[in-house]
Amino acid sequence: MNKQLVVVALGGNAILQPGQKGTFEEQYENIKSTCAQLAKMVLSGNYNIVITHGNGPQVGNLLLQNDIAKDTIPPMPLDICGAQSQGFIGYMMQQTLNNHFVEAGQENIPVATIVTQVLVDPKDPAFENPSKPVGAFYSEAEAKQLEAEKGFVMKEDAGRGWRRVVPSPQPLGIYEKNTVNDLLAANNVIITSGGGGIPVMLQDKKLVGIEAVIDKDRSGKVLAESIGADVLMILTDVNAVKINYGKPDEQDLSQVSVSKVEQLISEGHFAAGSMGPKVEACVSFAKKGKRSVIASLHEALEALEGKAGTTFLPD
Ligand code: ADP
Ligand code: MG
Hints:
eight-stranded mixed beta sheet; 9 helices; 17 strands; binds magnesium ion
């Protein structure tokens, strides 16, 4: 059997668990156990993987660091914070993946992180309507205070608390996709488009960074399409996509067709800003005749084999 090319999009819980502070040790331990799952996929011999990941809490912390230190060190814009987070998260993944491979007696599997720029349209309506949560969760009272004191735009996030929101434009293309393909051809495990990629636009054919955050699930789909992946797999903190989420009649979806999911989307089953973009990314990828999967981080390999999570199939 030919190896399948899988784009794996990791959710925030792959790097930081709810309730944790975000120390180096916590993040390293989480990444180590996440990468144990990913290493299993590679070591099975059945899959080549390209990894992408969220960075909301990490960028949120960098923003806060900048804000606290602003009188001593000039604050960096959001695109720079995105690049920083790609670098340090990629570093931890490169190291822990390598160590898992070495433990399994495989010392020659190269792992590389690409600082990745993703093209957006400067006229994207998202710039008028900030919607992407970044950083810590706050109470409503704290949120109001931050709005008043710092001019943040704060919104309630899926019943879990209040967070700062920034513009979330649509990804149009992965600027480094040829580099991804070259490294894939050389059998690398690749970490790319972290945090949805660094948003950039073209001005007179030249790149310029933009202060925004691109949804990593949307970019993951664009990435999967642009490198011709066989599977788009989105790993998160729930075991499956659910209908009637959070209600007494909540139900897991195990296998769904594109047309069935489109009906469920129109009925409003998937929250914007959390499950919504994941389901939309999966539908859009499956429409091209491919398979997409949403599953728990802890059941990645099982989900790839159709034994866990939610699988989206073309009609
Ligand atoms: P990630 O960091 O993995 O992107 P998100 O918090 O953005 O995680 O999305 C996962 C969350 O989506 C779940 O923890 C759950 O609270 C929420 N969610 C909203 N609607 C649904 C649904 N229909 N089925 C399952 N989870 C849902
Ligand atoms: Mg998310």
